[in-house]
Amino acid sequence: MSPPIFASAPNVALSAPNVAVSTPGVGWGPELTSGISVSDTYDDNIYASPTNKVADQILMINPFANMRFSNANGQLDLGGNAALGRYATFFDENYNDYTVYAKGRYNLLPMLTVTAGASYSFLHEPRYSPDYQPGIVPISPITYSLASVYAAALYKFDQNSLRFGWTYDNYNYNNAPLVGGGTLDNYDRNREVQTLGARAGHWLDENNEIFGLLTYDNRHYFQPVDNYGFQKSSDGVRFDAGLDHKIASTLDSEIYGGVIYQHYDDPRFASIVVPDFGGRVKWTGLANTTMVAQLERTIEETDLGAISPYQWDVSGYVQTALTLDIVHWIRPDLRVNASASYYFDEFYGYGVSRTDQVQSYGLGIRQYVTPLFYIGADLSRTSRDSTDLSESYVDTRAMLRAGLVQEPAYKPDDLLKPDVTIDSQGRFYAGLKTGVSNVQTMLMGSRGSGGSNQADFGDEGWAGGAFAGYAFYFADWYLAVEGELDKTSGGWTHQHVPNERVFSVTTDYSFGFSGAIGHSFAGGTMLYAKGGMNFADFLTNYQLGADSSQGHRTEPGLSVGFGASAPLTPQLAVRLEHTYTSYRDYNINCCVKPAGGTPDNFSNYETLTSIGLVYTFGGDPQATKSADVNYRGFYLGLQGGQDAMSTSNSGPRDAGTTLTANYGDLGYTAGVFGGYGAQIDQFYVGGELEVEIGKTNSDHERDPSGRHSAVEKEWDCGASVLGGYVVNQTALLYGRVGVAETRFQANYATGDKNISAPFNVAGLRFGAGVAFPMANNVFVRAEYTHTAYPAFNLVATPKDTEYYQPADDLFRVGVLYQFSAN
């Protein structure tokens, strides 16, 4: 990946497309490639809503075709593809997207290659797009056309290369009828974007290239002033310098840094000047496995704004994107894949203060029934955590897919090779577990006359249960189906007394079914991912004055998870597992005041982190592997994970009342750690330092008048003592205890008071984890920690003092390099 040459078109780079491709051949004989895939998807939140989620089933049809004309000097591709979506219930969401294109490459000289192309697309704007205005709901998704043209040239001489490129994109949006009447005027979004760029590179040796990149872009809106009274046209410059480094035969990397500058025609919009940084790592160290991680920054266009009740407009937002994709071929006819991404969007403009965090991850499996026909399944989860609560959402999708391709995935003889033929073994297993359930709720409802209340609630509780399943073992891989039953006590409370709203949510039990896929390492240790359906019983209590409601309800939800296991004996293993479940939401119809308002909607989510013992009947065939690992020495690593933060908040309210509530939220963290460990026989003791960043915030917004409050966790650093025991001469089971210094940002606003203050708070951190080797000197670990913090307060006035006591539950996965491993 080169840095995105064009800020407005991040998918087009000077090094692409097809610059380095050579196609053998003599004439320009045509070659047709075509195919189609059909999928059936269950989407639990088709409108990407924070609450009042709507689910539907979607039939997706994706045909494609490409005609290639090629010879020894170049190629020409003519083709197209389509994405057709048909909703089972909500027909207005149907879409018909398509793209037609022509692109080519030609070697004018041995040292000079030119590329050019053009395309036309008709597309829809998905409901999760940040361009949908809160409260303005089109009947159907917004549609638009995109016409694109590009041209580029690559010149190589000696140890140097020069690349020049130009792109042109023309966006044309259609007006959209609105729910409740009226039409959304989208003409002010129509624009053209042109970009010019140049890249110069110099190869220091066969493994290292240094490069510099300079681009200019012009973003011109056809309507000079948008619907909110602002001029959105702009000009931008981007400069980067970097290094393309081949670390090893199985590890390629690229890193760059620079600056991005965007200047807007409207003087009310401040210019955006931000550092640019990014890179790409591609690893193929495991047989039949490709892992690609990318980091990049762009400035994106958007159409957010308003005139009433006050004028504001968004000039654009800076997006920082981190993605990870892993593909592994278990056999020539069986492929598994996993993906994860994190986007941090910071909005700029006039009268705007908003940031979004978008996280997603997915799992998939594809089985080729024949070399040309496959069936598969995918499970994915996407969430947006926004400082504007109405823009937050969680969406989970489960998909079954079938596809037909023209190019065979494998040759029939490939399945007969000795290293492909696998004797699978099946085993029943059962186990017990205990852990922590953290229940989070996004709540939305009406308050007062025309007002609303939005809040993130959450707190933790104990969980324990049993599970059983059947597993298939073949080579280093593991497939399983599993059922589980848990007794849980996670939940939260909100108490506004006297004579105000008192409500709470707690879980009683849950049960579910899932499928899992895993890969084993030395000594029978294993990492696995799982996904399935869960059902939880929620006890919801609600009271306002003399009105009250109390009741149990069982809600379904899609669940995804990750875990690690280590054998103690051939039959007995210990496993650490973390699952996330998004449940169907529901309304509480009592206590709606004033009459005619909207009832409170409860949208519940749960993380469950557990440690368990697993007994495999007949013994785990992979546990017979032998390993002799020593954990002595210095180590350094990277880690990331999910943070379930809860904050106990209390303070005075109007008319002599007080509020005590458990607010909470889910976020993600990433950081570095390092330490030293000593191993005596099988016993281990060590010390460790860690630093992490992350954005986890719990919010409460009462609009249009009322209190707004939020607590955000920004970063932490800590020191811990670790103690553990090495089982099976391979896996380290350890506990940790230490201190963590954490930066919290507290915000509180009511009436004419608007106070924000940072707090550095030291807390007690303790937990447990498991670590084991992946490759020489490279280890993976999974761990759970709980951090308890002392209370702090934010003083608005002597009569307006808010008290906060946060806690967080972290599940993290890390990869470390041990400098003195045996």
In short:
The chain is built from no helices and 40 strands. It has 822 residues and is an all-beta fold. The chain has a 19-stranded antiparallel beta sheet that branches. It has an 18-stranded antiparallel barrel.
Walk me through what this model shows.
This protein is mostly beta strands. It contains no helices and 40 strands. A hairpin with a 3-residue loop joins strand 25 (491-497) and strand 26 (501-520). The model is unreliable at 1-26 (pLDDT under 50).
Q: What is the secondary structure topology, with strand pairs?
A:
Layout: E1 30-43, E2 56-71, E3 74-87, E4 95-109, E5 112-124, E6 143-157, E7 160-173, E8 176-177, E9 183-184, E10 191-205, E11 208-221, E12 234-248, E13 251-264, E14 272-283, E15 289-300, E16 305-306, E17 312-331, E18 334-350, E19 355-370, E20 373-386, E21 393-405, E22 425-447, E23 451-474, E24 477-488, E25 491-497, E26 501-520, E27 526-544, E28 547-567, E29 572-583, E30 586-588, E31 600-616, E32 633-652, E33 658-680, E34 683-703, E35 708-727, E36 731-750, E37 753-775, E38 778-788, E39 792-797, E40 800-818
Q: Counting H and I runs of at least 4 residues, what is the number of helices?
A: 0
Give the uncertain stretches in residue-range form: 1-26
Biggest sheet features = 19 strands, antiparallel
Helix and strand content put the structural class at: mainly beta
Number of strands: 40
The coarse overall form would be globular
- Cα(first) to Cα(last) distance is 35 Å
Helix content: under 10%
Task: Tell me the strand percentage band.
Answer: over 45%
- What is the rounded Rg? 28 Å
The average pLDDT is: 90
